[in-house]
What does this fold into?
Amino acid sequence: MVADLCAISLHHGIEPMVIAYDPAAQGRQIALPGIAQHHIDRRSKHFRADLSKLLSSEKIDVFHAQGHIAGALGAHAMRDMPSIVTLHIALGQGWRWLPSIAWGLHRAESVTAVSDDLARRFRPWTNKPIAVVPPGIDLRQYRPSEIRKLSQPITLGIAARLHPVKRHRDVFDALRLLKDRGVPCRLFVAGQGLEEANLRSAAEGLNVEFHGDVDDIATWLRRLDAFVLPSDHEGTPLALIEALATGLPCVATDVGGVRNLLGDAGLLVARRNPTAIAYAVERLVNEPHLRLQLRDDAIARAGRFSLDQQAIPFLEMYQRLAA
It folds into this structure.
């Protein structure tokens, strides 16, 4: 999302700069030729001073914090600089951060959220309206997969960071249930994370391939027969929008902003319910008309999430706050 927003900003007279603060991001950069990128370790005792110095030396006009933690970290370093905080995920286990998060939200001139659900969750801790701005994708990079018979075994995919909140193990359990029912499946997993070793161990005996970070996600998605997102919580997940734009039948947990995103263009299942996932996949195998209907609905639904359209509110905020 940051990469796309930076790229489109350049075409509107805005010069973006990216600051990464997570220790895990050290040495890794977003592929954005010509755009300055900096790393400041948030664990450093000099973090606030270093961030403040960087913002001042680069003469930054507007600070856009991506996430409630970024908003909290930046609140004391921005001084009089106007800011935006965009909420991507629920608070989760971060209650100890709540005073700092609330201060970051109060400090910001504008607060946005990627889903109605997140806006509702964070509303008690801000002193202003929260604008809902779902993410968008460059639809030109995605084209629907060709209509074809299901592969044998059926190929499912999940693109998500390897983290417990994404509930990869629920899909593994669903694969075992489907195997017992005589429905052979394989699963492609895109993404990296601290849980990789544990997940590889949990997937032993199953037809699961770990593909790590995928640079060309559009091509990767076209190798699938269906997309699965079994998360415990989501805002408005870009991975699901990308799958819809590819025309894939999608199975996703009914959490966060997923219901508003999918509408009738996918199959919703209860969270932490491998049996429900297995049943939904079995429906896709046994009901060809359902797959075709979901394909058409998915393509139409994805059209609502064009990057050009979704970026407009942010571009307008940048211009207004900079002025």
